[in-house]
Write a structure and sequence with these properties.
The protein is mainly alpha-helical and 191 residues long. It contains 7 helices and no strands. Helix 3 packs antiparallel against helix 6 and helix 3 packs parallel to helix 7. The radius of gyration is 24 Å and the shape is extended.
């Protein structure tokens, strides 16, 4: 296996050698790519081993239905996309602001409260629950966790998925608006 890999590497180096800079970069990335891959797996496997030991020690059991897992998969994808788009909306604020740290800190603190990181949303007062479900932060963290935990009915889980889709659509629209306005602002300054 190593011999075949070496032969392929030598053949690809010879093919790429006609362009010196590309050959050097290609060799560098050919060496780095397997190292990064191995580093990721060496970090992942011990983490999974620790999780397995904890699960066996505390006799962790999943008590949800099959459809909880089926709803969790699209929920986690929508949550990741929503988190990404919220980050981009905040990032476009740099068109108008010199320092974005304050806005980013405000976003993180608000998310910390209303995403269920302090406590599960079901333990919060009713007024805070209403606010939490009215903001997109709960749809990033609390909703996927609640679905996976098995704490929702099928109808409520589908409603939560719809809420995630609505917030994702709104964040995409907000990003497009902010991006266009930001480009207009940037080009108006004389760039």
């Amino acid at each position: 296996m190593i011999r075949i890999y070496r032969q392929l590497l030598v053949a690809q180096i010879q093919a790429a050698a006609q362009y010196r800079i590309q050959a050097v970069l290609w060799m560098l990335f050919s060496i780095i790519r397997p190292v990064i891959f191995l580093a990721a797996w060496t970090a992942f496997l011990p983490l999974m081993l620790v999780c397995l030991v904890i699960a066996l020690t505390f006799q962790v059991k999943w008590s949800g239905e099959w459809w909880h897992l089926a709803l969790f998969l699209p929920s986690i994808v929508l949550a990741a996309a929503l988190s990404f788009m919220i980050g981009w909306v905040v990032a476009t604020a740099t068109f108008w602001l010199q320092r974005i740290n304050t806005v980013n800190t405000l976003l993180q603190r608000t998310s910390f409260i209303f995403a269920g990181q302090i406590a599960p949303l079901s333990l919060m007062p009713t007024a805070l629950q209403v606010i939490s479900y009215s903001l997109p932060f709960a749809y990033v963290l609390a909703i996927p966790a609640e679905i996976l935990r098995g704490g929702v009915t099928l109808e409520r889980g589908l409603l939560y998925l719809g809420g995630q889709a609505v917030w994702l659509g709104l964040s995409i629209l907000a990003f497009r608006f902010a991006w266009r306005a930001g480009l207009h602002e940037y080009s108006a300054v004389g760039a």
